[in-house]
Amino acid sequence: MPDIKLFSGSNSKYLAEKIADHYGYPLGDIELKKFSDGEMQIVINESVRGSYVFFICSTFAPAENLLELLLMIDTAKRASAGYITCVMPYFGYARQDRKDKPRVPISARLMANVLEAAGADRVMTMDLHADQIQGFFDIPVDHLKSEAIFMPYLASQDLSNVTFASPDVGGVKRARSYAKYFERDLVICDKERMKANEVKTITVIGEVKGADVILVDDICDTAGTLCKAADALIAKGAKSVRAMCTHPVLSGKAYENIENSSLTELIVTDTIPLKNKSKKIKVLPCAKLFARAIRNTHEYKSIAALFVEK
After folding, report:
1. CATH number of the domain where residue 17 is located
2. What values do phi and psi take at 201, rounded to 5?
3. Domain count, the chain
4. What is the Cα–Cα distance from 5 to 28, expressed in whole angstroms?
5. Domain region containing 102
6. Which helix (H) or strand (E) element contains residue 175?
7. Is 34 a catalytic residue?
8. Tens-digit pLDDT profile for residues 77-91
């Protein structure tokens, strides 16, 4: 079996170190140098010839994180790495996965193209904004589910009065999986946007009176949708509202919105590091899941074994 090498992007070390610790193998020696104008140069200070190379790099803002990953891939490819896997806990630029109006990009497809062009042999990520993004790739994609993290946590809680909710129509499938697994009811929040990151109205479809509602989503950006959904659910009689989101982008006034909202708690993973602390935000680690996925990939074992089934 080929040697394994784990490397980290400069802004993902907080997570890569935890993944390496769970895997039981140290991070490789990689160096990011910059010219005076900010241009990046990657130097791998050890041999990767013939090795299975895993680059752990979430491509959250700024865009330099994506460029750094592309340069790492090219470096390893030109150093004769045997197999290159991009471990991207958060896959950036995935929200534009179709043309919903004239003259807009399909950014998720472009990201797939550039990763393949750079020389990636495989991509490992978690909770893509849309499952069909996997079809943009001509290389294998290991699409992990945060259910493997959130469901065991929820199983330790009292869910006797819980109703699950989707903050928009597009997330119904995600929320339904939780409702089905725990045999609870499901409601839908139908939102109307004025423009990106700005919600005009939210209509609750379903009965929530007296229920403890848990909203399920993949990305929390400005938290505008979640907070308005929470307010709408409380207005319709919900006893309390919590939310679970895989990727805590939390930009703009997100922290302020969460603190001033009807949400009692926001549960997230650490695919993206938090910029600020908040008593309302609870972080569940994803390093163990990715470490297991990397091991199964290297040892030619099933990734499906890591999914939660019932």
Report:
1. 3.40.50.2020
2. -140, 155
3. 2
4. 6
5. 4-144+288-306
6. helix 172-182
7. no
8. 999 999 999 999 999
